[in-house]
Write a structure and sequence with these properties.
mainly alpha
């Protein structure tokens, strides 16, 4: 799996990084913890610029966050929770998930958008209450970008710093990333199969 991601990044360049990170934010098929270090390691060989790698990853994440922001803003809390109760199983989004993100947002205010970018799962969902409560885009975009740059910059730089050593451990990463992907798939099937509309 690591070889596949590296091949995609090498052949597709920066647009491939944007696409992978967009998908990771919309419906996480592959965690950013795998994508960004691999992308960063390609910069250590001179194939890419590390700053452009980070910029591409941040752009993909921002686009994904903006998608959820506008979904929340357009649908509102009640309609979105009803939609999640009916159809959320396919993207493993339940009304309870939305409520948790709203509680986090209300507890921490607009700063939640920044700090949530460092927290798995909440990182993606926090954009929904930001849209529901109509957080100004002039705040949402920079707060999202700052948190994203910290997280994805650190991941990319880790791969960049390891350089050739990172490529050597890809031999061990391949079965690990494949296992993670299979585990995510099993978890997805489990969530779909056990999704209870009435309980949600």
């Amino acid at each position: 799996m690591a070889d596949w991601i590296r091949s995609l990044v090498e052949q597709g360049g920066y647009p491939a990084i944007v696409l992978l990170m967009f998908l990771e934010n919309v419906f996480p098929p592959i965690p950013s913890e795998i994508i960004m270090p691999l992308a960063g390691s390609t910069a250590s060989t001179g194939e890419k610029n590390i700053f452009l790698v980070i910029a591409a990853g941040c752009l993909g994440s921002l686009l994904g966050a903006l998608m959820w922001y506008f979904v929340g803003r357009k649908m509102g809390d009640e309609r979105l929770q009803k939609w999640a109760a009916r159809h959320g199983r396919w993207i493993t989004l339940s009304p309870n998930d939305i409520q948790k993100a709203e509680d986090w947002f209300q507890k921490h205010g607009t700063w939640a958008v920044l700090f949530a970018r460092l927290v798995p799962t909440i990182r993606t969902l926090i954009a929904i209450p930001a849209g529901i409560f109509k957080m100004p885009l002039a705040k949402f975009v920079p707060f999202t970008l700052i948190g994203t740059i910290f997280w994805e910059g650190a991941l990319a730089y880790a791969g960049y710093s390891l350089g050739d050593r990172y490529q050597k451990i890809e031999h061990y990463l391949n079965p690990a990333t494949t296992t993670i992907l299979i585990a995510l798939l099993i978890y997805y099937v489990y969530r779909v199969a056990t999704f209870n509309r009435k309980r949600a």
